[in-house]
Amino acid sequence: MKTRVFITLKPGVLDPQGKAIHHALEGLGFAGVNDVRAGKLIELDLADGTEDAAIEDMCRKLLANTVIENFRIEKLEDA
Amino acid sequence: MNSAVIVFPGSNCDRDIATALEEVTGRKPAMVWHRDSELPDGTDFIALPGGFSYGDYLRSGAMAARSPIMRAVKDAAGRGVPVIGICNGFQVLTETGLLPGALMRNAGLSFVCRPVRLKVENSQSLFTAAYDAGEEVVFPVAHHDGNYQADEDTLDRLESEGRVAFRYQEAVNGSARNIAGILNDAGNVLGLMPHPERVVEPAHGGLDGRRLFEGLLETVA
Questions:
Q1: Domain ranges of chain B
Q2: Which residue, among B189, B206, B217, B167, has the nearest Cα to B89 in the 3D structure?
Q3: CB contact under 8 A, B59 and A65
Q4: pLDDT at B73
Q5: Contact B94 A67 (CB under 8 A)
Q6: Å from A16 to nearest chain B CA?
Q7: Which of B42, B52, B183, B186 is the most buried (most CB within 10 A)?
Q8: Which tens digit of pLDDT belongs to each residue from B68-87?
Q9: What is the DSSP string of A3-67?
């Protein structure tokens, strides 16, 4: 079971990398970029039947630092 | 004082802190590998060294915080054994939850490597007893992820409880309220980004860090 975990900085947490990307986009002449926030995508290949609670536990215990980050779990239909 | 230095794959200041501890305490610390699950009997001081444990994969300190030895370190900290985390060690302490907040990428995005001026904000702790309150010291920093952040309530609590041990006296990395080092609520765990172990001998160009270990020796031994 392919599962994706999206990890993003909580709103209000300063994102120096997002800022740098924003500046670089402007430097390349792209207008109209209001803001950039950078995050992470982690792809998991899980045994069928892995419970949602277990995936959330993985996020809380390791994949995300919930002091500064939010996470969102997305299960992909079997390809 | 029976010190233990925890060594993770990617630690690179483990020998610096070991040399500093031996110089000050007269005893060689035990070097404890991250896969070990127990600390040597009688360990009464634990140091988490600087470096780039696990290549900073996922987040700085994230993997190291989940290694087997950290359970023993947490237990020891809970019993009141003094624990210091320097640089990557500070990142490991926040990732284990022994200290609040998180260390993010420096605000300027650059790796910062230079001596910085710090103010000793709390001179009553186990670690800072040999300093005067408000004294200015110079320790080197060398980090990419030293930007200390926590929510406003946590920051207010740290300030009001005297748990900000060291504060930068210049702009370094964007840390909230210029915080360079903090204590846990019991006062026996200190995390700081600057490197006191790199200013303990005259050849280092400064001795400001030496008193941290001397003060600790006096309170622990």
A1: 3-220
A2: B189
A3: yes
A4: 98
A5: yes
A6: 5
A7: B183
A8: 999 999 999 999 999 999 99
A9: EEEEEEEPTTS--HHHHHHHHHHHHTT----------EEEEEE--TT--HHHHHHHIIIII--TT
* Relative orientation angle of helices B210-220 and B14-25, to the nearest 10 degrees: 60
How far apart (Å, rounded) are the C-alpha atoms in residues B81 and B59?
Answer: 27
Q: What is the CATH number of the domain that holds A30?
A: 3.30.1280.10
d(C-alpha B196, C-alpha B138), whole Å: 9
Residue pair B130/B209 in contact (Cβ under 8 Å)? The answer is no
pLDDT tens digits, residue range B167-215?
999 999 999 999 999 999 999 999 999 999 999 999 999 999 999 999 9
How many angstroms separate the CA atoms of B77 and B44, rounded?
10
Domain count, chain A: 1
Distance CA A50, CA B175 (A): 39
Q: Quote the ipTM score.
A: 0.84
Nearest CA in chain B to A39: B58
Domain B3-220: which topology? Rossmann fold (3.40.50)
**Structural domain boundaries, residue A49:** 2-75
pLDDT digits (tens, 9 = 90+) for B120-132: 999 999 999 999 9
Report, as an integer, the average pLDDT of B15-22. Answer: 97
Cβ-based neighbours of B202, under 8 Å, separated by 6 or more: none
State the pLDDT at residue B221. 72
Query: How is chain B split among helix, strand and coil, in percent rounded to 5?
Result: 30, 25, 45
State how far residue B2 is from chain A, nearest Cα, in angstroms: 32
- Among B66, B67, B104, most A C-beta atoms within 10 A, so best to mutate, is B104
Q: Extract the tokens encoding B113.
A: 């490597």
CA dihedral B149, B154, B159, B165 (to 10 degrees): -50
